[in-house]
């Protein structure tokens, strides 16, 4: 399964690592570049923005949001704009 993951704090980072061990493909985004690097070094794919993360997934998209700060960014991204 391929999914997106936003928010790589202690809980989010550990969840991504478990998903990677189970051989899922995970695209990640976080405001903290060191958190991103930590999971990318284990096989996750880095998204440069939330829009980039969404674009890297095919519909039907699965995205986990683990942080309210990133949720606010998600709401302002083009993902929620009417097409």
User: How far from one another are the termini?
Assistant: 27 Å
Task: Identify low-pLDDT runs.
Answer: none
The fraction of residues assigned to DSSP E strands is: 15-25%
Describe the oligomeric state of these chains in a short phrase.
single chain
What pattern of helices and strands is seen along the backbone? EHEHEHEH
Strand line-up across the major sheet: 3-2-1-4
Query: What Rg do the Cα atoms give?
Result: 12 Å
Mean pLDDT: 88
Shape call: globular
Instruction: Give the C-level CATH assignment.
Output: Alpha Beta
User: How many β-strand runs?
Assistant: 4
Q: What fraction, in percent, of the residue positions are helical?
A: 40-55%
Helix/strand-derived class? Answer: alpha/beta
**CATH architecture descriptor text:** 3-Layer(aba) Sandwich
CATH H-tier superfamily = NAD(P)-binding Rossmann-like Domain
Describe the biggest sheet?
A: 4 strands, parallel
The helix tally amounts to 4
* Total of domains: 1
Please render the helix and strand layout as text:
Blueprint: E1 2-6, H1 10-21, E2 25-29, H2 33-40, E3 45-46, H3 50-55, E4 63-65, H4 68-76
Parallel strand pairs: 1-2, 1-4, 2-3
What does this structure look like?
With 83 residues, the chain is α/β, with parallel strands linked by helices. The chain has a single domain, classed as Rossmann fold, CATH 3.40.50. The protein is built from four helices and four strands; from the N terminus they run βαβαβαβα. The protein has helices at residues 10-21, 33-40, 50-55, 68-76; strands spanning 2-6, 25-29, 45-46, 63-65. It has a four-stranded parallel beta sheet. β1 (2-6), α1 (10-21) and β2 form a beta-alpha-beta unit. The chain is globular.
């Amino acid at each position: 399964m391929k999914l997106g993951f936003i928010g790589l704090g202690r809980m989010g980072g550990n969840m991504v690592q478990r998903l990677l061990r189970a051989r899922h493909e995970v695209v990640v985004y976080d405001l903290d570049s060191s958190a991103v690097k930590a999971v990318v070094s284990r096989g996750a794919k880095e998204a440069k923005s939330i829009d980039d993360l969404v674009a890297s997934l095919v519909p039907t998209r699965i995205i986990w949001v683990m942080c309210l700060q990133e949720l606010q960014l998600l709401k302002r991204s083009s993902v929620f704009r009417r097409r």
